[in-house]
Amino acid sequence: MPEFRPAKPMPGRSRRLSAVRIGGALIGAATLGLSACSSAAAGGASPSGSSSASGTSNAQAAQQAAAAKIQVTAAMKAPSALGVTVPLKTKPPSGKTVVFLQCDVPQCAVIESGVAAAAHAIGWKLHVINFQNANPATLVSGMQEALQYKPVAVALTGLPESSWSSVIPAYQAAGVSIVAMAQGPDTINSTVISNPAGIPDNQVSGQMIANWFIADSKGEGHALVVSVPAFPILQAASAATASTIQSKCSACKVTTLAVTLTEVGDNGVVPAIVSAIRKDPSIKYVLSSEGAFTAGLPSALTAAGISGVKLAGEAPSLQDMQALQTGTEYAWAPTAFTYEGWLFIDSAARHLEGMPITAGDGGLPNQLMTKANVGTPSATLNAPSNFPALFEALWHVG
What is each CA distance from 267 to 20, 142, 272, 284, in whole angstroms? Predict the structure, then answer.
């Protein structure tokens, strides 16, 4: 995957994309959303080992870690097929227009690269409009602007339906479809036609990271799970991580750190993590729902004199994947951001032909990455490796 490339600004209008500054100045303080919690073992110590503080025997912890390791091994295998399999009825008409509303974190630029490639492959025109996650009004105004281009479909990512639902009637009246990516739950209907990269995909990623943590900590670790409740999609991933740990690891402990969009934009996430670990040095793992939110954490921990803490999570940045290769970060479940862009075009084409769209348009590929299988670092999960050609075959193009 090439380096992030920002979308080109529209002619005649100023660029609205502003980079989110994360891991820089120590500004803001996130709040601890849930108190530390742990699940106790059901039963006494095993005769073959001593008991841990939670009442879980060493043997039971080892057994739970071994079970998690089996899941980790399976999750590390690369996907080999698309989630969507039914071809379009015919080759779509060329010259149609689509619009992508691009958010202000690096991953959204990667999604845009996928949208651009897919639009080119199918013979459609693409317009990109930028918005700011911390200012939902910029998304609403961007969606209103998008209608000026008379597109067949418009896609957006991240912010929940409640923040942009006011424009749905205008889209319904104009006969323009909305593809709501990386969010949910959404009300799917004749206007909001699809929600690729939705909650189910992110729950799978959260479960993979949970199993890695259980296996790596030998069933006895304490993890700080970092979440942003303002994004339901990220909350789903964090909740899946926490609940999987609590249900599958009797001696493990989970503390949840909930941060706001303002704290994300004001560089408050990394300082809050450092503060939480200082308060409870038993935390040896940080599991992030988004790699961009923990940028600079390893350096910040070192500067604070804290060692022995492992960083892992979902939706890593390119820098996270590079750190995975060098061994300074430990496990990531990368999102197939480029693939996600192709799903936007696929959903739009299916709706244009009057075809049904399966939940999430077949879903995203998922894979767990560690130093053992990261290969060449990329900001997106490029799997299957030939997925563009597979989509083109479904569309009768290429």
Answer: 8, 26, 9, 22
**Which region among 123-127, 280-284, 377-381 has the lowest average model confidence (pLDDT)?**
377-381
Query: What is the fold, at CATH topology level, of the domain defined by 31-40+55-79+201-333?
Result: Rossmann fold (3.40.50)
Give the pLDDT confidence of 235-259 residue by residue, as tens digits. 999 999 999 999 999 999 999 999 8
Q: How far is CA 1 from CA 111, 229, 330, in A?
A: 12, 29, 20
- Give the position of tokens 């691009």: 102
Q: Do domains 31-40+55-79+201-333 and 97-197+337-363+386-395 have the same CATH topology?
A: yes
What number does CATH give the domain 97-197+337-363+386-395?
A: 3.40.50.2300
Closest CA to 17 of 141, 132, 115: 132
Q: Which residues contact 101 (CB under 8 A, 6 or more apart)?
A: 129, 130, 131, 139, 142, 143, 146, 154, 155, 156, 157
In the predicted model, is pLDDT for residue 41 greater than 90?
no
Tokens at residue 51, please?
């008991």
- Computed on alpha carbons and rounded to an integer, the radius of gyration of the chain in Å comes to 22
Distance, in Å, from the CA atom of 278 to the CA atom of 136, rounded to the nearest integer, reads 34
